[in-house]
Amino acid sequence: MKVLSGAVWLILFFLHANTVTAAVMLYGTRVIYDAGKREQLVRLSNESDSPLLIQAWLDDGVEKAVAEQKVPFILTPPVFRMSARQGQVLRMQYTGEALPEDRESVFYLNVLEIPPKPKIDNGQNTLQLALRSRVKVFFRPIALAEGPKDLGGKLKWRLVKENGATALEVLNPTGFYASFANASVQAKGKRHSLETNMLGPGETLIFRFTSQVPGNVDMEKVIFPLQPYQR
């Protein structure tokens, strides 16, 4: 088992992109709700030339949860019509239920877009699809109001053996979630990609290589492009 030393550089790439579905665009790849705020606004835009019926709700991580699932937020309006090429603002309000005060909590915002029924001629069969987008909502307690500083530099990682294969163990000792666009290790002049997942506060995860790597890896670089949810 090899502990990575200061000779390994952590390179952060801050990516800026919008989450786009077939018609509805959410401004931002995630939502940060600071506990001291009265409400958090989420802006949507209908990029299509047709009106849409929209349903919005929050869940706590159960992706197939129904819209009536109980979460500590009120979202308004929950159902509305969006005209073509128009925008809409969702208002998210924290209802005060107890949440951890030393670490972030994660929820998910769902936006379901239902297109208008197509005109049917001569009894033709049609297929109508309702598309859903889903983004993370991080509730940030007052104790963490300043936001993460050098989050990537605080992660601790080391090489481990898992079922005889080399893997990378990553520990997040902070109270913030770390989300990765992708990750790779550069060893002996070759880059090896890693399977990644969101790393929660205090969590340790094993990131597996997507291709075979030498049994005795001489680490040159660990590249973790963190997605920019901090501000």
UniProtKB/TrEMBL annotation:
Cellular localization per UniProt: Periplasm
Does the keyword Chaperone feature in the UniProt annotation? Answer: yes
Q: Which organism is it from?
A: Chromobacterium haemolyticum
Where's the Pili assembly chaperone C-terminal domain? 171-209
Its BP terms in the Gene Ontology are:
cell wall organization
Q: Does the keyword Chaperone apply?
A: yes
Cite the entry's keywords alphabetically: Chaperone, Fimbrium biogenesis, Immunoglobulin domain, Periplasm, Signal
Q: Write down the superkingdom of origin.
A: Bacteria
| Segments forming domain Pili assembly chaperone N-terminal | 24-144
Q: Which family does it belong to?
A: Belongs to the periplasmic pilus chaperone family.
One Pfam entry for this protein is PapD_N
User: Which InterPro entries does this chain map to?
Assistant: Ig-like_fold (IPR013783), PapD-like_sf (IPR008962), Periplasmic_pilus_chap (IPR050643), Pili_assmbl_chap_C_dom_sf (IPR036316), Pili_assmbl_chaperone_bac (IPR001829), Pili_assmbl_chaperone_C (IPR016148), Pili_assmbl_chaperone_CS (IPR018046), Pili_assmbl_chaperone_N (IPR016147)
- Protein's name according to its UniProt entry: Molecular chaperone
A cellular component term from Gene Ontology for this protein is: outer membrane-bounded periplasmic space
